[in-house]
Task: inverse folding
């Protein structure tokens, strides 16, 4: 099944960020190696599910979000992990999620 028609942005490419856009982007890794095919979920500050993408073959993911506190959770057959990120304003906010 291809994700091309689902409306999700292509993962793993450089992104131009507008002056008011908040982008949460990063990689899913296991033992330092990229993990492709992980389900990466974005949770708001209350823990509510907001969005989900599948990491690229290189482990890349990206979400367009609002400023605030976010949790990024990765689910993969090799393990699960999560990381927190604070997006205090527009721009690119990097986050790495380790699964084990």
Result:
């Amino acid at each position: 099944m291809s994700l091309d028609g689902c409306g999700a942005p292509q993962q793993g490419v450089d992104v131009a960020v507008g002056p008011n856009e908040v982008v949460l982007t990063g990689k899913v890794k296991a033992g330092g190696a990229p993990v492709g095919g992980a389900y990466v979920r974005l949770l708001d500050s209350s823990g509510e599910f907001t969005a989900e993408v599948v990491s690229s073959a290189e482990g890349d993911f990206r979400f367009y979000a609002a400023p605030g506190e976010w949790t990024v959770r990765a689910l993969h057959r090799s393990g699960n992990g999560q990381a927190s990120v604070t997006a205090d304003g527009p721009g690119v906010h990097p986050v790495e999620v380790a699964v084990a």
Summary: Confidence is low (pLDDT under 50) at residues 1-8.
